[in-house]
Amino acid sequence: MMSGKIYNMLFLCTGNSARSVMAEVLLNTLSKGRFKGYSAGSQPAGRVNPFTIELLEKNGHDTGGLRSKSWDEFAVLGAPHMDFVITVCDNAAGEVCPMWPGQPMSAHWGFEDPAAAEGSDEQKREKFLMVYHQIASRLKLFLSLPLETLDRMALHDRLKEIGKAPA
Asked: What residue spans define the domains of the chain?
């Protein structure tokens, strides 16, 4: 890994309305410019979940420009080159993904789907907040890695370990 490089990381989920969007926004905030986060889905919901938008805005994140989009957008000529591709839901992890140019490192970091939460709006907000903190925790582990000193195999192993870390 080269120092000074801005790395691109794509977060995949089925609907691209909650977890992957939170991961995109959190990476862009926490990495302080070292990474550019993106998100997409295999079957995009067509809109970002309103609870996702509410939570991100409440925590000071810019939500302008966020949208639910297909992972096909990132598998075409002219799409940003991805260094890392992370699935954040079990359904997307089991699907056949497009071929990503450049062979980015990939791993699975599963999180419970807050969009599937049942109960009152307040209970749903609690579930979204819990997943938001879990994603932030794993991203902080990732961002603490010494990318410049890890070889490709060691880095890939660490990516997979982070996915198994308590969420």
From this structure: 7-159
